[in-house]
Amino acid sequence: MTSVSSFWVRSPVMLAGAASFLLAGTGAASAHVKWFCAFDVAGQPRGLEQVLCTDFEWLTGLALLCLMFGCLTEGTPLGTAILNALDRVTALARVNSALIVRAVMGFFLVSLWNLGGIILTPELKTDVAWIPWLQLAMAGGLLWKRTLPFTAAGIVFLFGFAVWNYGVFHLADYPVFLGVAAFLALTAFDRTLFGQRPIDVVRIAAAITLMWASVEKWAYPHWTDPLIAAKPGMTMGASPELFMQAAGVIEFTLAFALIWTPLVRRASAIILTAVFVSAIVEFGKIDAIGHSGIIAVLIAIAADNARVPATRRDVVLAPVYYASALMLFLGVYYFAHSALYGAGYATGAGLGSVPVI
Fold first, then answer.
1. pLDDT confidence of residue 86
2. For residue 318, which of 53, 67, 93, 10 has the smallest C-alpha distance?
3. pTM of the model
């Protein structure tokens, strides 16, 4: 067997193994840890020399292999057939993608109003009495296209309010909200943003959100210790450290895939949707509310039928851009943390937890 043939035989097996691991084990890891466990944003993260270990290198290498396999498939008759099948299966969701996002965001905002005392996500608490009523009004604004800018402005305001109260580093977990706000505003005015369609803007915001969250899994793996202690089966026999490294690599790779070629990003959106839905089964109402918005966005991404011709250049550049994105997010995360909190910052600051609802 030639090396090329061997590659085509091994790659699907590796891809299937990685996907099985993802769906079987990392669904629980995709529950946002800040919603369920004590955390300390200001505490010192694990050193980069500990993050960039041999296991991490092997995991990222396997992830790159899977990504390149997806790129190779894209330009083949098989890839075209898969895209055509996705177009047929997702036709209804594609026609109603904006309506799906509006409906789910309406559910999200009404849920926040009902729970009370929450700014956008479960761990962002507030005692300001009028915020739940603003959220209810924002949900009403989703009923009509002409009032979508009001809801978009409300999301931006709440994001800024949360930054004021919790700091920019904490809210770096959630740029997807700004993407949703842009999606709603651009949809209302039938506009693009520097040539980017509304779905493209929110897709990029979702990718940034998930890539940042994956770095947090490497920097603070111990935050998830209570979840692993409560649900030891989620690691499937791996050590907690290896499991969190793998969960972070898989999440980062799928997030990066959202900004890559059409087949790759649509497959990634489908897998991520399955992961987030499986996490809801494990963690219930908090997770359902908190992740509802990004699930709606992922469904819209999976249904998006925009295509560009696939080339060998996409395969060659995938490792370069992937490695660049990995270095960028690691570097920005650690540099920003050091600049904002410093090496000697007291680890008790920023400690928080979310009560069971």
1. 94
2. 67
3. 0.85
What is the length of the chain?
A: 357
21: tokens are: 């691991």
State how beta strands 351-352 and 39-40 pair. antiparallel
Kind and range of the H or E element at 117?
A: none
Question: Alpha-carbon distance 354 to 357, whole Å?
Answer: 9
List Cα–Cα distances, 209 to 108, 118, 205, 325, in angstroms: 18, 20, 6, 13
Q: Phi, psi at residue 2, to the nearest 5°? A: -75, 165
Closest of 243, 211, 248 to residue 227, by C-alpha? 243
Q: Where are the alpha helices (DSSP H) in the chain?
A: 3-21, 27-29, 48-51, 54-74, 77-89, 91-95, 97-115, 131-141, 148-166, 168-171, 176-189, 198-219, 225-230, 240-257, 262-283, 285-303, 312-341
pLDDT in tens, 320-346: 999 999 999 999 999 988 888 875 443
- Give, for 118, the enclosing helix (H) or strand (E): strand 118-119
Q: Which residue has the tokens 């209302």?
A: 188
